């Protein structure tokens, strides 16, 4: 049964702002192709208005006490918890991931908001008393001004939570551009933030595509910009915003590897590997899309195929489904094309998910679990981030070979090893040149009070989201050197023309 599509508005000055744009896009349910919402592409005037509201609100928000900001974050985490089921349903309707996966996403976003509740201790400066005689030197961590965020479609709640809660908790104001492919859950999250007490103008949302992103990069009143998405777009965003004088963090694409040692607990290793490879239909920048089997672990390949074949594909509303559809028909076409290229380039296709159909959802963007063996680093399926439910298997003889193979890949978002050997795990974490390492953990995204530390081609900028690095990113350090004289009549040592501090 079809329903009337929801009209998505911008959110400016503390309330929904109906767009005057002539350019709108349909938001579809990936399992059915039903149009569930329509989203505007902001005009230049609407972008200017959002930034102007944020700029004006900063003048008072920056002086709001840490305690007041903390209490808003405390209320926001409560509201997210109370509305988590609704947020998950909105994610599933527009993204396609299963409801349990969507609920997990909301939970990971909630972790960041909970961490922001500690802003009263996170935003502390430093002081050195009597750095020189009667002189104190201290650092203040002050907000930057207007911040901006541009998020990808694959985590419409978690990725905004990686950005605006800590940014506004630090005293900045914010303009968010969520993905136009699944904006409804993001908008509900922003509504909850205002219900929690975020003042008008502190958090604004505008929708659009590349032109709107470029406007945010160029705007002189935006002082810092956070991006999470593809490498192609992220590289452009980083360069353009940096040239405009902004502080930028850009979390980008990946090609993550999972090493399976022959001494690994087999069932745990394979179940975790397949969950990370095929969960969310592979649409995660932290998905383990390459399995590196070491030594006798290669004998487990038939089990990988059997377990993958048994996984259930269905609409995200089916709680028994292991993976749902890809986000849109273009994504499915791209993934199928890459599977075709793998076959053409000589990889051995052990499980083919190209002809996957789900009864009752024949129009859905479904691709089933797909497994390739005999993959080389020259193949397209290895060199490109597939962003679909495709697992590439590589077999090597030793851990050293596995490490060398992975270190040759230019990306460095995340990697995992499954082993029962403490020695192997320690060697791996020491020698591997990847920013985030999991030991018997398939997707090593750290808890929110640790920073997201992807590296190499997966990241541009020195500071990542979450943890201590987020506070550093969203604040500027002001150093004060202070001396106080007793009274106007106190004696002086005369004119000091040296650089010595006495």
Essential attributes:
oxidoreductase; EC 1.2.1.27; alpha/beta; 502 residues; six-stranded mixed sheet
Write up what this structure looks like:
36% of the residues lie in helices and 22% in strands. It is globular. The protein is built from 17 helices and 23 strands. Helix 3 packs across helix 4, helix 3 (84-95) packs antiparallel against helix 8 and helix 9 (210-218) runs parallel beside helix 10 (231-243). The N and C termini lie far apart (80 Å). Pfam families: Aldedh.
In brief:
Residues 20-480 form the Aldehyde dehydrogenase domain. This protein is of the alpha/beta class and 502 residues long. The chain is 36% helix and 22% strand.
Q: What form results from the Cα inertia axes?
A: globular
User: Low-confidence stretches at least 5 residues in length (pLDDT < 50)?
Assistant: none
Numbering strands along the chain, what is their spatial order in the largest sheet? Answer: 15-16-17-14-13-19-20
Measure the end-to-end span: 80 Å
Characterize the biggest β-sheet.
7 strands, mixed
Strand segment count: 23
